[in-house]
Specification:
- With 406 residues, this protein is of the alpha/beta class.
- Helix content is 36%, strand content 16%.
- The strands form four sheets. Strands 5-6-4-1-7-8 form a six-stranded parallel β-sheet, sandwiched between helices. The chain has a six-stranded parallel β-sheet with strand order 11-10-9-15-16-17, with helices on both faces. Strands 13-12-14 form a three-stranded antiparallel β-sheet.
- The longest helix is centred in the N-terminal third of the chain and has 15 residues.
- The protein is elongated.
- 52% of the residues are buried.
- It binds 3-phosphoglyceric acid.
- 3-phosphoglyceric acid binds next to loops.
- Monomer.
- It is found in: Cytoplasm.
- One of its GO terms (molecular function) is kinase activity.
Length: 406
């Protein structure tokens, strides 16, 4: 970014890709971490006299306008968090965006509507993405530049993340630079023992990550909803009504995880006990069951696992306490419901108290840490990237970074 600022941006229209993909409830932003992390670059550019046009996605709309995915609540939250003048366009590259971009004054910010309302953003056809990138670039009218500050989205080969860098002089934003700097220390020379804690609900999202991190880490801890598919696939345990991805039960990359860990001398830690509930509800009755015997409790085969049990949480915390580097992605249970938040809380507490270099990655885990009332400064780094941080740690190349030629 300094290179761009050194050239002078006064009066120029600068297109910034930010990651403003935040959780919403009843039309309000429930965790504004990504918005706060995106503001410094916008403020820096505005202070230097740029006319800032921001493009971002929210959720996964199906390539057409859908009011529930409008960035309007984000614009409203932004306006509360900054003294910048933030206008909002009603579309992406249509009449509203063009007119608002043309009217933009030095130091003002224009937020375009959700870039994923346009099917070309995520298209697999290069020419379609290039066409949208061209339209976005055209909003900057001649003397523009592009800044990618959307660290959370750099793993996506999307028009506003990657292709746009072909259409405008492209620069790396400060947030992207800072995130890469931290993650580099994890891949290049992590202090050992190096523990990776993975949670969240979907094995399909995480299986490649688990496979790729097993050779790099000393210990991989697995919690969250994905435990049940693994318990059923690997250990053949009955899991009641717990979350399961049936098509993965015979998948060799799932059933072979233990062998892979053994081969690399990596400890793979699974929960030994689970909080089983009578159903998926904040006030559901619940009890702790051993992982090998989940169906023989009060709710029988109707029981649903919603959190790791206390013995598992303590064992995970113990492992975290003896580590020198810890990377955590994904909650241990349904932390949004008080009754099923203990596992996530114990893991977060162990990280917060640890002297180790701790990195919390991923929208959900970062939101969990804040929702559970932890002080962000007790962690080494809270990343704005979920999939992006994981793919970086896996050693994959990131299209949004590649496109910058960095
Ligand atoms: C994220 O939430 O990890 C990023 O904003 C990317 O979103 P996506 O997974 O929908 O591409």
């Amino acid at each position: 970014l300094e290179n761009l600022l050194a050239q002078g941006v006064e009066g120029r229209k600068i297109l910034v890709r930010s990651d403003l993909n935040v959780p919403l409830k009843d039309g309000k932003v429930t965790d504004d971490g990504r918005i706060r992390a995106s503001l410094p670059v916008l403020e820096k550019l505005a202070a230097a006299g740029a006319r800032v046009i921001v493009t971002a996605h929210l959720g996964r709309p199906k390539g057409k306008p859908d009011p529930q995915y409008s960035l309007a609540p984000v614009a409203a939250r932004m306006a509360e968090l900054t003294s910048l003048a933030v206008a909002q366009a009603e579309d992406l590259t249509g009449e509203s965006a063009k007119a608002s971009a043309a009217e933009l004054q030095n130091g003002q910010v224009l937020l375009l509507e959700n870039v994923r309302f346009d099917p070309r953003e995520t298209s697999k056809v290069d020419a379609e993405r290039a066409e949208l990138a061209g339209e976005l670039a055209a909003l900057t009218a001649g003397n523009g530049a592009f800044v990618n500050d959307a660290f959370g989205a750099v793993h996506r080969r999307h028009a506003s993340v990657a292709d746009i860098a072909e259409k405008l002089p492209a620069y790396q934003g400060d947030l992207v630079a800072a995130e890469l700097e931290v993650l580099k220390t994890l891949t290049e020379n992590p202090a050992r023992p190096y523990t990776v804690v993975l949670g969240g609900s979907k094995v399909s999202d995480k299986i490649a990550v688990i496979e790729n991190l097993i050779p790099r880490a000393d210990t991989v801890i697995i919690g969250g909803g994905m435990v049940f598919t693994l318990a059923k696939a690997i250990m053949k345990y009955p899991i009641g009504k717990s979350l399961v991805e049936k098509d993965l039960l015979e998948d060799p990359s799932v059933t072979g995880l233990m062998a892979l860990a053994q081969k690399h001398g990596t400890t793979l830690l699974f929960p030994t006990d689970i909080v089983m509930a009578s159903g998926f509800a904040a006030d559901a009755d619940h009890e702790v069951r051993p992982v090998e015997d989940l169906e023989n409790g009060t709710y029988g085969a109707e029981a649903m696992g919603l959190d790791i049990g206390p013995a598992s949480a303590e064992a995970f915390a113990e492992e975290i306490r003896r580590s020198k580097t810890v990377f955590w992605n994904g909650p241990m249970g349904v932390f949004e419901m008080e009754a099923f938040s203990a596992g996530t809380r114990v893991v977060a507490q162990a990280l917060a108290e640890s002297e180790a270099f701790t990195v919390v990655g991923g929208g959900d885990s970062a939101a969990a840490v804040r929702a559970l009332g932890f002080d962000e400064s007790s962690f080494g780094h809270i990343s704005t990237g979920g999939g992006a941080s994981l793919e970086y740690l896996e050693g994959k190349s990131l299209p949004g970074i590649e496109a910058l030629g960095a």
